[in-house]
Amino acid sequence: MNTQLIQSTKAFFEKTFGNTPQKIVLSPGRINIIGEHIDYNDGYVLPAAIDKVICFAFEKTNSTTSTIVAIDLGESVTIDVTADSKLSDTIWTNYFRGILQQLQNKGLVIGNFNCVFSSSIPVGSGLSSSAALECGFLFGLNELFHLDIKPVDIALMGQSAEHWVGINCGIMDQFSSVMGKTNQVIKIDCRTLEYEYHKADFSDYSLVLFDSNVKHSLFSSAYNQRREECEQGLAILSSHFPEVKSFREATEVQLLSIKDTMTEDVFKRSHYVIKEIKRVTLACEALDRGDIETLGQLLFETHEGLSKEYEVSCAELDMIVDTLKKEPAVVGSRVMGGGFGGCTINLIKKGQEEAIKTKLAQLYQETFGIELKIYEVTISNGTSLYHPS
Ligand code: GLA
Description:
Elements: H1 3-17, E1 23-32, E2 44-45, E3 47-61, E4 66-70, E5 75-79, H2 91-105, E6 112-119, H3 129-144, H4 151-165, H5 172-179, E7 184-189, E8 195-199, E9 205-211, H6 219-240, H7 252-257, H8 264-288, H9 292-309, H10 315-325, E10 330-335, E11 343-349, H11 353-368, E12 373-376, E13 384-385
Parallel strand pairs: 4-6
Antiparallel strand pairs: 1-3, 1-13, 2-7, 3-6, 4-5, 7-8, 9-11, 9-12, 10-11
This protein binds alpha-D-galactopyranose.
């Protein structure tokens, strides 16, 4: 599926620099079955890497600066890799600058390079194109300059780069982009970074993504605000119940008993988090026993929480989920990723996908005047080198 992307990236590199690239890296986006906004709350998440990727081509050079070309945008940047990174108005370059800064922070020295990249991950759809960018770039530099950075550390440095850019994200996106495995979801314990793979077998149901085609311009500030509200909620909980060190140890009963001591918003965020942490464990057990109806029901519950309590949904996403809830062929649906737009993840009875897609796309267009985008994804390997056969 990505053959064409790889060929065109390689051809672009050869035309631009006159050499065959020394390394080609594929870095995937991710889906998340369940466990939303709890990676930074010491919860568990259940993501997987997908077959939508960013393809990078690299070579080392003897030049005094390095060049990165964003093929899809028709833009390029020249960077001094020895200087401290500074945020730029050209947003896409910041993910690269953020990674270079992490290398500097760790005292890891690299030489100069040429890099081009092109992507099949839709941007702003909640599929983590930024994590793929950070992790794919760092993975490539790691190979090119033999830095010996371990895969989990690539993910952690990718996360730090995202923080440097300004989003105080958790570890889920970078971890799943790096550690993904074909046909497996990863259950990550975000407190310890222990992880286990579970078979991604959805039995009689297909995973389909519906992209609302809506993007929230205040995403980063709203995301960071949620994180702060959770920190406040946890601090209040811990002050009443010293044994509660993270939301994982907290119960709904405890939270309800101190509801009056926090703002309405902080209460709602905390309530959602405590319940979502429990849902992930139930969802993973349901997946393991092939009980996709129960899994789907949990997805609906997560959406309800994300919409009403965590307040990261929007009218378009709510309409998609509410519409699908009425369809007997759909057992689960919810907003996926950070929210405020982007995709819903949906479980649809095999054989019924086309009928549901057509019906929803039409209704969506009529209601909002926006085209619904539809992605079928395959659960695939994490960031890797491409070896031409
Ligand atoms: C974004 C962040 C992740 C995670 C999700 C919500 O994708 O990058 O760390 O918090 O939102 O689950």
